[in-house]
Amino acid sequence: PAGINSKEIQRNIALAKEKKLVYMIGFNHRYHVAFQMARKVFEAGEIGKPTFVRARYGFGGRPGYEKEWRFNKKVSGGGELIDQGVHMIDMARWFLGDFKDVKGFAESYLWKSGVEDNGFAMLRTADKKVASIHVSWTNWKWVHSFELYGENGYLIVDGLDQRYVGPERLTIGKRDPEFKAPPEEQVVVFDKEQKEDSFARELKELASAVSEKRNPLTSGVDALEAMKIVKKIYKGK
Length: 237
Prior knowledge:
32% of the residues lie in helices and 26% in strands. The chain contains six helices and eight strands; from the N terminus they run ααβααβββββββαα. Strands 2-3-4-1-5-6-7-8 form an eight-stranded mixed sheet, with helices on one face. Strand 3 (118-125) and strand 4 (130-136) form a beta hairpin.
């Protein structure tokens, strides 16, 4: 994460402002080609007004996983919510907007190390758009799935690489206006030859933001908003 708590991120935002520096966060999902295409389709209004997000992200750990830095709260700030959870929270916020209502659970089912290995979140905006998120370190079948539904259709991003259900894939679905036929779907699969590395795309954005003296696509404010949500879920434990 950008910090192990909100205070660290707020300090960095203030310091960047004082020194007139660009403060960019590594929310790498936004730079994956499937999400970037999904964003273009979304901004073009092809699925209509957004209504809800359903997101899952998880894997099953590895031998000795509980001994790694992620399980040291003093270093990591928390467990799976602060690890993979912040990415799904950020993606949901990117499409739905700021969340007003936050409900969730941080549970430990297997690793028993003092931090959660599963995180569950139900988030709602002021205009009642809802995101349902589950992230897990005990998902034995690895998963990465982000679904965005609108009044007229949907966007589904599956996969990040071969470990997470294969290559990135974007499904663009359009509902039948008369509700008489199944949705019309277009599936775009991004193989290694087609897609630009997401980290290269991220670095290009950083260089452009510095050169143009502007806020980057993933700013300190984005990290702060994600961390505030995680903090609320932790407080509700």
